[in-house]
Amino acid sequence: MERQTGRQTIAVKLSTADLMMIYRQLLGRYEAQHWWPGETPFEVMVGAVLTQNTAWSNVEKAIDNLKGLDALNLESLLTMPPDSLAAQIRPAGYFNVKTKRLLNLCRFLQQNPGLEVLDTDELRARLLSIHGIGPETADDILLYAFDRPVFVIDAYTRRLFGRLGLIVHDCGYESLRADFEAALRSDSTLFSEYHALIVVHAKAHCRTKPVCVSCPLSEQCRYRMDQLANGISAV
Ligand code: SF4
Description:
GO biological process, one term: base-excision repair
Low-confidence stretches: 4-11
Pfam families: HhH-GPD (PF00730)
Number of strands: 2
Bound molecules: iron/sulfur cluster
Protein name: Endonuclease III
GO molecular function: 4 iron, 4 sulfur cluster binding; class I DNA-(apurinic or apyrimidinic site) endonuclease activity; metal ion binding
CATH architecture of the largest domain: Orthogonal Bundle
Keywords: 4Fe-4S, Endonuclease, Hydrolase, Iron, Iron-sulfur, Lyase, Metal-binding, Nuclease
CATH class of the largest domain: Mainly Alpha
Shape: globular
CATH superfamily of the largest domain: Hypothetical protein, domain 2
Strand order of the largest sheet: 1-2
Strand content: under 5%
């Protein structure tokens, strides 16, 4: 990975030591999150689609609607009229698009039994072949539904590690994912907990407008150092 500094381009490397130190600091502050909030792999997959571009609280309402109809299963979603499905998932936003994506996923699962025996690269390629399933959604599914050691890159990850000075914002998804996976022990439990802690931290402190006071990562944060160097200390 590279970072632009004026006209100069310098390499930015995610080191094992840095990543594990950050992980331990986040774990010490927030404790283990035991994600994903879903009772079955299918529920995780549905949640991964519904959470695209919306807050999890909205996803929960949509999932509760489906559970209330006892419809949070493959057969029910495939037989439910699409308009009815759209009405149930309306709280998650973009409900017409997400209805199509959910049905694409359901048809794929129906037509491809035995996915769990595939190796991770093959399974990932198959998931990415589904219309409406992009890298982040595929990796959510791989990690939290199939227990595969895949590091999820989302906007929170980019924001946090960008502010820490460890990555640049415009590096590509696959490049960034590969860098995290190369620096960390290949362990789905570690990856799932790390991603959860990043999300929790991004909501608690590293928000769009960051709350740096009492942030557990402030002492090694480049953004914070720049703020202090510029005489800004109250945030
Ligand atoms: S110090 Fe501020 S910018 Fe840095 S990680 Fe913490 S909240 Fe984010």
